[in-house]
Amino acid sequence: MGLRSALGPLVKARESVKVFARHRPSIRGLLRSRAGEFRRAHPVLPSAAAAGEPVEVSVQLRDEYERLHPEVARSFTVDATDPEADLPEYIRFEAGHEGVTRADGLEFGTPGVQYLTLTHEPTGERFVSNPVRVTGDAPDERVFWGDIHLHSILSDGTGSMAEGFRYGRDVTDLDVVAYTDHDTMGFFIPPSWQRRRMHGEYFDRMKETTEEFNDPGEFVTLFAYEWTKQPNVGGHINVYFDGVDGAPLFDSMAPDSDTYEALFDRLREYNDDGDGRALAVPHHPAEAMYPFDFDATDYDDEVAPLVEVYSQWGSSERPGREGNGYPLEMGQGEIDEPGHYVQDALRMGHRVGLIGGSDYHGPHPGYSLLHAKPHLPSRREWLTDGLGWSNIWRMWDENSYPGGLTAFRAPELTREAVFDALTARRVYATTQPDRILVDFAVEGVTPGDDAGAGGSTAVVDGADAPREVTVSVAGTAPLQTVRVVKNTEVWRTWEGTDDDEADLDAYTAEATWTDDDPVEGVAWDETRRSAADVYYVRVTQADDADGFPGMAWVGPVWVEAE
Questions:
Q1: pTM of the shown model
Q2: CA–CA separation, 259 vs 446, rounded Å?
């Protein structure tokens, strides 16, 4: 063990103090933040519906600090892009509301992508819902939304898991939530202490709460934890299970699971035993304090079929110097060394899909708060949620971003169907709270399709065979660009607008291209490469009022020549 590893907690403490000092807030600004002003209404609808199917809309009121805004009674008129929609005339927030309300009595009548618009009567401000894909009959597959990377007071977060599950279910209207509390910790919680707590009581408490809130067809909870190699000795990995009762804890300090490869071995054995299924997901691999090096790891695509490409830390798709609009800046920033990015993993030939998460350390799944202006948590939050990173960091200018979401393509909202979507890579990533709908196919094969070896693979008749690439996007704001990335380079671009006040016509895009170039694949070095061509889609919307463009990362799809 090197000196840096041995002194890990002290190193992290010193580095954290430097970050705190660098981003110390204005006391005047913090005092001003105690009373926020209404900034936006956020209407949320299911992403799929059949014509004539009753649909419920939930609406959140937010202030400039992204907090729920309960003080003001408001009324909105309701309109839709669908002329055949059956709508309530008004959505009203009555006195005494807590910043969120729901309204039913809504039905769409015309197949296609539809939007709902709310207009605040006194000011004329307009707020647009997420897109809804309306079909003539009940859809065979729907898009469900989840935040599956969160921390509670059981590790270094604030608030209870129960509080977070309620918030995701009742406030942000998520379909799927998973808590991923740390198996070990560093800095203010010694690693061995957290490990004892997890084995002694916390792991079972996590299981009980996860099971309590699982409600098939309405709200799905996944059981998970974060394998946290501490302190300062490598990257972090979330481990997800398809069930709860028999899920084991393979912790990062145990001799048989204290390396990436050993963890992958334990997960493979668990899957082979037939008692359940598990998978691993590395996250923020390019973060300098906790980097995950694909180049130095015997990576296993079978038990680790996904990478969290985006969270509140930023995007690990590619380095900031290559145009990444969300470079990692929290903590020590990005490592900016080859081997730590999703594109590097694809060049090495790894078959990994893309998901998003928040990595938020508080009870607000689906709407993280660290990217907002520094502000004081309420007295109730300090008293009920405790002292943890989310409440502390909310007072600092943390260089954080909005958290991420995962879109699950599944036939039903059950734990089994959601876990199947993860293992098949039938998922994609977006920023919060942007429920962007993206359809992407190469030769008719979409991410997660079972075609070809290992799934998500189109097989063409020879290396020179042309293949059709299709993309359809329905955004939550005007679309700025839709890019198809092939073999880690931008291959085709659809250009939209950077005007965030453009009409709803600017929210959607469709494009079809033909790739006539030979299938050549992409290489990392002389021995590691993808013999298949690798395609994925990167969507960028116009900047919002705070300068954060909504984004989506969808794919990959691989193309092999017979």
A1: 0.94
A2: 34
